[in-house]
Amino acid sequence: MPVHGADNPSSQKQGTAPGSFALQSNIGGTTTFSSPDTPGMPAPSAKTAHDFNPTPNANPVTQLEHARLGTITPEMKRVAQREPHLSAEQVRDEIAAGRLIIPANLVHLAMNLDPMAIGRASLTKVNANMGASPVSSGIEEELEKLHWSVKWGADTVMDLSTGGDLNACRQAIIRESNVPIGTVPIYSMIIDKKIEDLTPVMIMEELEN
To answer: Which residue has the higher pLDDT, 192 or 108?
Structure first.
């Protein structure tokens, strides 16, 4: 591995991270993550996370809002337990700076979700893709795929189903899963439709669903 910043063009005196054009990590700091420091890319932003703080009397809902008000949530504490190199304060500060997320949907949290984090300061995560097609699979098969994915180390799972009863299948997956679940809404939008036929209302209804 080359010396920090070696042979990498950089607009910054300290150079870039070894083997890449990414700026050196600033764990727990307020500077937002800049674009990769390659020639011709935008310079790092002069703004910090504190430039985007909510008003003191705000009613925070998201992890980002809590973090920017200085709150350490139960989810942040759980992430710190799962990321032994990070303290709860560092988790909060990384979220506030926009470099870390906790994909903890409130509905899923009320069920079986074990909060985890994705971001530059966190451990590398593994995602698994699964999904039912119009000609095969169903809820039981998708739940089996979920169980095998988690058993073999998936940190997150994407449901890419394009057929079957999507709502019933996704509800069953969310109830069963202790890892975050993601979807690709456009897949369900175009079932039995042409993409040109989609309207803004149809798109928003599916996103809200």
So the answer is: 108
What sign does the dihedral 147-148-152-158 (CA atoms) show? negative
Q: Which of 91, 108, 94 is nearest to 179 (CA)?
A: 108
Q: Is the pTM of this model over 0.85?
A: no
Q: What single string gives the DSSP state of each residue in 134-194?
A: SSS--HHHHHHHHHHHHHTT-SEEEE---SS-HHHHHHHHHHH-SS-EEE-HHHHHTTTS-
Cβ partners under 8 Å of residue 2, min gap 6? 8, 18, 19
* pLDDT, tens only, 16-48: 554 444 555 566 565 554 445 555 555 666 666
DSSP 8-state class, residue 100: E
Rounded to whole angstroms, the Cα distance separating 151 from 128 reads 11
- CA-to-CA distance for 4 and 22, rounded, in angstroms? 11
For residues 176 and 179, give the distance between their C-alpha atoms in angstroms, rounded to a whole number. 9
Residue ranges per structural domain of the chain:
1-121, 127-208
